Structures are given as C-alpha cells and as structure tokens.
C-alpha cells in the first residue's frame, strides 16, 4: 500500500496523511496523551485470531502481515496472507476492532517495528470530542474498503500472472521485503506457480 502509481486509492491515502499532519494542537495533544509508543520484536502479534482486537497500531517503522489460519485438515499451507502493512499504515483487524468481536485473522510483525498504539475506548472518545480525528478515522475506513474491493476484483478476475505483474507495478518493494511464500499466499497461488511466473516476467 505504498509508493503506488497515482490512482484514487493513492489520492485517498495522501489525503489521509495530510489530515494527520494538519491536526490542530489540541487534537494532537489529546491523541498523544492516550497513545503509547513501543518497539516490538519480529514475530510479535498485534492481534490473534479468535481474540478481540482491542488496539489499533500505526506503524512508524517495520512491517506486518494479516493472515488467516486454515482449519485443521485443509491441504496446502497452514495460513493465508491477505494483506501487508508498512510505515504510515493504520493496522488492525477492522471487523474485530470496530465491532469488538473475535477476530477472524491474526496480525504479526515481519520485523522489529516501532508502533503507536491506541485502544478502542480512547479512539471512540477522541472521535466524539474532535471531529477532525473522526474524519481521519472515517477516511482510513474508506481507504480500507476501496482497497479491499480492488483486491477482491483482482482475485476474482485477474490471472495469477496478471496479479503478480500488478504487484510489481504498484508494490515492487514487497518482493524485496517480504518472503516469497507470503507473497504467493497473498496472490492466491502456490510458491511453485509464483516461481514459474517470476522466471517468465522478472
């Protein structure tokens, strides 16, 4: 979700970052008062599958992935990666966080990462008190909804080779930062298929 060519999603992301930068001093002070900064190790779970996700994290450095564990007995890999996060991203299991229900996914750091953490109750209070923070929160949800719509369309209607070509064009840094097994899972293909596609395209 970074360094993509300019498109409606990228424009929305830039608007989100602009609003964050332009927070009023009072809203910024209130936000800083209820958030905490932490440096967390590689492999740390920001959210576990089956548990309620009570915090949202903003990545200051590092990276993370969201994935779903397969039920026992299913063939193939043990988990399916559905998204990656990098600095500047708003990271949570959206359904779990906003509805406060058990998460269907897990979020794990791919490397040591600096994060800003904000819990659910504090965010709701900020949204009520500061309309500008409510706007930022709504914008982050709009971004996620449109990104998810694009991803579903790609998985449904693009070939494996087209999905990999799109990744190289819009998210080339993933190939350098993320294990190929996770990328294959993210694209909905096997590692062997990804290797064949890479041999033809790269």
Task: Provide structural commentary.
The protein has helices at 8-21, 25-34, 94-99, 120-129, 131-157, 160-170, 173-177, 180-187, 191-201, and strands at 36-40, 45-47, 55-61, 64-69, 79-85, 90-91, 106-109, 113-119. By secondary structure, the protein is an alpha+beta fold. It has a single domain (8-157), classed as Sandwich (Jelly Rolls), CATH 2.60.120.10.
List the helices and strands and how they pair.
Blueprint: H1 8-21, H2 25-34, E1 36-40, E2 45-47, E3 55-61, E4 64-69, E5 79-85, E6 90-91, H3 94-99, E7 106-109, E8 113-119, H4 120-129, H5 131-157, H6 160-170, H7 173-177, H8 180-187, H9 191-201
Antiparallel strand pairs: 1-8, 2-7, 3-6, 3-8, 4-5, 4-7
Helix pairs in contact: 1-5, 4-5, 6-9
Number of helices: 9
Average pLDDT level: 89
CA radius of gyration is 18 Å
**Biggest sheet: strands, sense, closure?**
4 strands, antiparallel
Number of domains: 1
Strand order across the biggest sheet? 1-8-3-6
Shape descriptor: globular
- CATH architecture descriptor: Sandwich
Q: Estimate what percentage of residues fall within beta strands.
A: 15-25%
- The span between the termini is 21 Å
Protein name: Crp/Fnr family transcriptional regulator
Pfam families: cNMP_binding
Question: Quick recap of the structure?
Answer:
It contains 9 helices and 8 strands. With 202 residues, the protein is α+β, with helices and mostly antiparallel strands.
List descriptors.
Jelly Rolls, four-stranded antiparallel beta sheet, 8 strands, 9 helices, Crp/Fnr family transcriptional regulator, cNMP-bd_dom_sf, alpha+beta, RmlC-like_jellyroll, cNMP-bd_dom, disordered N terminus, 202 residues
